[in-house]
Amino acid sequence: MEQNGSDLQFRILTSSSQADDKTFVLKHNNTFAVFNRYGDLVPYPKSSLGIFHEGTRFLSGYGLRVDGDKPLFLSSNLRDRNEMFAVDLTNPDIIADRKIKLEKGIIHIISRKVLWDSVYYENICFRNFGMEEIEFNIDISFDADFSDVFEVRGTERARKGNLLPVSSNSNKILIGYMGTDQTKRTTEISLDPRPDRLEGGNAGYLVRLGPGENFIFSVTISFLISGIERKKVLSFRRALKSYQRRLEYIDQHSCWIETSNDQFNHWLGRSRTDLITMISETPSGPYPYAGIPWYDNPFGRDGIITALECLWMSPEVARGVLRYLAATQARETDHFRDSEPGKIMHEARNG
Question: Quick check: 73 pLDDT over 60?
Fold first, then answer.
């Protein structure tokens, strides 16, 4: 059945077989990340992978290589409270001069990722489990397309902004974009320790490890928008602790149910955790966003229905929703926006 262009703009298009690869989501307030099971961001067409901030994808490509080869997958999982994404990898057989330079499984790679207050934090540890000293290169690549959420899901834009030249120095990479709204958006990537190689969106380390030794480096990414104050950058440990304190606060100020059935308790806990993940702080208070990736923003009816259903367990959410909807309530008739005095909004978007 043929469909015209006006119909297609309301559909979420599926155009890649890689859509079936399992994804993992991190979120805090107006920032969320969608990774594949390797912890990578592979920029294939119409991919929903990326780190999004205020409705714009600030990081669309991110990859890790060991001597030019993709690491082998071991495992990946989200912490029970969705506060951290953990990935375990190892090296493949690495060939040099037609000989095996490094046997598969010698290096254990542990990556830990956290989102907190508009900043992305990652700690990566390489450990030599072999009996001899080894030497290898680590290569990390970054890219950003600054597409808005509608563009990522398949909507064609009549006009686009301009990507700015990538700049790098010392331990930082800056990827910039000037939008059609004349707002500059910048992805600021910091690596610690300082890389041995840094050019454009690529960084690298030359690593030598004795038996049982570790090499650890961190990646910190800030999402900057002109005219908006940048967020304070913490250490990985402090960012994770801040997220955990938020969860502790919510636990102390909300109700939960516990039964004699462990399976039912797990279902309740999982549902509660996912709901807490979707709640974002707004100037009016907490607001439950609708869903990731396409609906990570406030919806009017969805928000007020969720607030009603959560009223018994977390009245603070209802207060935040009512204040937000009152602050955004229509005060004039606008046929283009389908607004009339007294109506609540359908949805609010940034980007």
Answer: yes
